[in-house]
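Q: Here's a chain of 399 amino acids. Please give me its 3D structure as tokens.
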Amino acid sequence: MIHKMTYCKKCVYPQISVNLYVDDDGVCSACESAQQFEELSQDFWDIRKRKFEKIIEDTLRNNTSNYDCLIPVSGGKDSYYQAHVIVKEYGLKPLLMTYHGNNYLPEGDYNRDRMRHVFDADHIVYGPSIEVLKKLNRICFKKMGDMNWQNHCGIFTAPIKLATMFNIPLMIWGETAWDISGMFDPDDFVEFSARVRHEHGLRGFEWYDLLDDPTDNLSEKDLIWAKYPTDEEILRVGVKGLYIGNFFKWAPNENTEKMKELYGWQPAAKPFERTYRTMSNLDDRYENGVHDLLKFIKFGYGRASDHASKDIRANLMSREDGIKMVRKYDHVVSSDLYYWLDYVEMSEDEFWRTADTFRDSRVWWIKDGEWWKDNIWGEASPYGKVYLPIEQQKNYLID
């Protein structure tokens, strides 16, 4: 059955978005959560700041490591803000840790490598074999429609592995998920957990689910970096992962300008093809490109919808202009697709045949040999040739 898309009346998110709901007034949970955070008083944040300081004090009192905390960093704007708070405002000595999934943009390389200069911090950059990464790109694209699974796994696994190895009891993450889907309220003290890693970050898959590919044979040794520490290892150190967005008002646009001014942080020099922002996702050329294209293929919206919705909630953009951004960018087949196809040695025809199998039937239908969907501007449109096998097309046909 084909369902007409429901969009939030305040931002540009469709209800199909992960963990999102739209209430009876037509407002999505992310907008409601953002409003709750916006209405918080300075007293609220003062109390949260003192709570943060108490946690730091209690942790350092019992800390036997040479480092005060570990900060997972990509080199992005949020990484700089996390390090700024910890190093410059609290005078702590963190260990910076980066999972390197290959394919950084040049500005991303620059920003990442500059961190140990400007924050006087030790920095470990860890990345799997490039051949393993290429195999994982192919396997995960075919298995779950996400070639970047290895990035999600590495980001949510390598830091806590390192924390247990170096006996560091505290990890400092950045934003919580409230501004993405409204999953949390201001009174929720969200902490990093194995469950969030597995269900949200890793799509419910683990390293051992990727060993059975008949073409790209991977061994357990190839994926040692993807193994989550045991409960015993974590409890021995007492590792806790805090989100700094729980304790300090999260304002990414303001923070970005501050990081540029203080540390020379660089946005992307060239505009992206699938979104108007240049400050996000510089650690992987595919995040704003073909990885996001797959989100559009699956669920009918993309990175421009994400960015516009955030900027609408921050009163930096009108909904009308947000709709223009969605209309301009969300559907674009960006040129990095061909970079990725060359990287993994895959034909464009195989890409589209595989990608079509992940389309959500609540969003897409087939008409005259093309894919159609409802749009936020009030009319349905076609979005390209159907590559889906004939026997599967019946699930998308309108009677």
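Q: Can you summarize the key feature?
A: Strands lie at 69-72, 94-99, 122-126, 170-173, 240-243, 365-367, 370-374, 380-385.
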